[in-house]
């Protein structure tokens, strides 16, 4: 990674994590005031237990995303790209945002019943895992009869694909499948 891109990544991560700190601090300060001062909701242990994952994930994001600086002020490591699509950091942000939403709803409604929405997290995990596991269970069944039907339909579909191509395109496709005709030394 070049020095310029390391600096860009480091400044982007630092600004995102700074925003995360400010928003988390504000929302949690309001929640603590509502829970301990106004005694809304009456049980504070629920807030403490169910906000803990958010605190842990924010610590993980900060330890992974903040740049490491040397004694001379140069960037040793720019940190991981916490905004990378499809990474686990994306799920960390989702859980943190959901916790903030539930904190605000707890403040507004004054009830711990809003924390039942935290069941969305395991529900989403089951949904994602089921997309991976269910195809293994769908393969069983039919056996030989289904296999012969699939082969006959596959043969007819390749004929359709080739008939839809012009003669020139069919020749080019055949040459590509055949491989290189001339070998160079």
| Strand numbers in spatial order across the main sheet | 1-2
Class per helix and strand makeup: mainly alpha
Bulk shape? flat
Compute the gyration radius: what is it?
A: 28 Å
> How many beta-strand elements?
2
- What distance separates the N and C termini? 36 Å
How can the largest sheet be summarized?
2 strands, antiparallel
Strand content: under 5%
Instruction: Give the ordered list of helices and strands.
Output: HHEEHHHH
Domain tally? 1
> How confident overall, as mean pLDDT?
82
**Count of individual helical segments:** 6
Low-confidence stretches: 155-159
Overall helicity = 55-70%
Short description:
The protein has 185 residues and is mainly alpha-helical.
Write up this protein:
It is a single chain. This protein is mainly α. It has one domain (3-138). Helix content is 70%, strand content 3%. It has 6 helices and 2 strands. The protein has a two-stranded antiparallel ribbon. The longest helix is centred in the first third of the chain and has 35 residues, at 3-37. It is flat, with a radius of gyration of 28 Å. The chain starts with a helix and ends in a 7-residue tail after the last helix.
Notable traits:
flat; 2 strands; 185 residues; two-stranded antiparallel ribbon; mainly alpha
Write the layout of secondary structure elements.
Layout: H1 3-37, H2 45-65, E1 68-69, E2 75-77, H3 88-109, H4 120-138, H5 144-163, H6 167-178
Helix pairs in contact: 1-2, 1-3, 2-3
């Amino acid at each position: 990674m070049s020095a310029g891109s390391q600096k860009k990544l480091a400044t982007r991560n630092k600004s995102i994590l700074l925003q995360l700190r400010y928003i988390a601090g504000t929302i949690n300060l309001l929640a603590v005031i509502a829970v301990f001062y106004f005694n809304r909701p009456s049980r504070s242990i629920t807030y403490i237990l169910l906000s803990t994952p958010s605190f842990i994930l924010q610590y993980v994001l900060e330890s992974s995303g903040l740049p490491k600086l040397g004694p001379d002020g140069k960037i040793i490591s720019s940190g991981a790209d916490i905004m990378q699509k499809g990474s686990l950091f994306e799920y960390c942000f989702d859980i943190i945002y959901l916790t903030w939403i539930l904190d605000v709803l707890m403040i507004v409604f004054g009830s711990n019943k809003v924390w039942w929405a935290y069941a969305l997290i395991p529900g989403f995990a089951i949904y994602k895992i089921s997309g991976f596991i269910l195809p293994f269970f769908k393969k069983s069944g039919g056996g030989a009869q289904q296999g012969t039907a699939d082969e006959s339909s596959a043969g007819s579909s390749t004929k359709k694909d080739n008939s839809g191509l012009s003669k020139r395109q069919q020749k080019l496709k055949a040459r590509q499948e055949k491989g290189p005709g001339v070998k160079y030394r």
